[in-house]
Amino acid sequence: MDATELERVMTEFVAGRYQVLLATTIIESGLDIPNSNTIIIEGADRFGLSQLYQLRGRVGRFRHQAYAYLLLHRHTRLLEIARQRLTAMRQHNQLGAGFRIAMRDLELRGAGNLLGSEQSGHIVGVGFELYCQLLRQSVARLKGDRTAAAVRANVKLDFVFVGEGQPEARGARRHVDGYTALRDAEDDGATEVALIQARLPAAYVAETRLRIDFYRKLALADSPEALKQIEADLRDRFGRFGDEVKALLLVTEIRVRAERKGVLSVETDGGRLKCLRRAGGRDDWVQVGARFPRLTAPKPLLRLREISAFLEQLPPS
């Protein structure tokens, strides 16, 4: 079935022209059809626990009572691991059961290895972006790639809060002494911008799994072309996005440009832009004359574009 026919069938099913949709596991994520209230899963013992949970979640997305029927072949001997998966599905059917399902799946499959045949490793200890970096470097090293030792650029902007949660007020934990007072006096004429949050809001990408997938793609992006493709995918799948997503894409663009120009870190301190070169010493900053470049854009998104444009004009080191 080609893409055009697939889209036509799904549109007609959502509109209520058909009462039954026969499908593969392609429907397990990304579908939200409120008027579907019953799903029948054939050969349920052959699916993983997370697959069964995702399939069951395709129904019951509106106010109607929903039903999920898990069918088994009559003469098939049920394996113990399959029996445990089906028991977990029957036990955890309340609202918010996803965490319990995930923990049970972890118990059944094991924690796995960071690199190896068991890809179920726990990455919270190192952080998601660092994990992606380590994984990419390890694979490149095994392939003999000369860029395997490349270090990721660190982007730390004082007017951007990346991720979920609530940002702290600017300067909440800032130590004030004679030096900082003199520096603040020098910056009195600098243009101060409002804080902006850089993230993929749940209101824009509702599925947690899809948000993590796009965060992973952004963490692994290594060229402006790859970033443009991610932006096009977001627009195509979820429509127009707001300032928070724009900020996240611009922060990623700054990181990509910094890496391509040989810049190890990009930081802002008020109106100052501090870019540390990778090839030089620890004090090898990019400077204009004898001082750090100054930022003048009055709004956060404009300032992010200003930083990106500055990095683009830098000669590679």
Give the helix/strand layout.
Blueprint: H1 3-14, E1 38-41, H2 49-56, E2 67-70, H3 80-91, H4 98-109, H5 128-142, E3 154-156, E4 160-162, H6 178-186, E5 196-198, H7 208-220, H8 224-238, H9 243-260, E6 263-269, E7 272-277, H10 300-313
Parallel strand pairs: 1-2, 3-6, 4-5
Antiparallel strand pairs: 6-7
Helix pairs in contact: 3-4, 5-7, 9-10
Describe this structure in words.
A 3-stranded mixed sheet has the order 3-6-7, covered by helices on one side. The chain has a two-stranded parallel sheet with strand order 1-2. Strands 4-5 form a two-stranded parallel ribbon. The protein folds into 2 domains: 3-109, 3-Layer(aba) Sandwich (Rossmann fold); 151-313, Transcription-repair-coupling factor, D7 domain (Aspartate Aminotransferase, domain 1). It starts with a helix and ends with a helix. It is mainly alpha-helical. The protein is built from 10 helices and 7 strands. Strand 4 (160-162), helix 6 (178-186) and strand 5 (196-198) form a beta-alpha-beta unit.
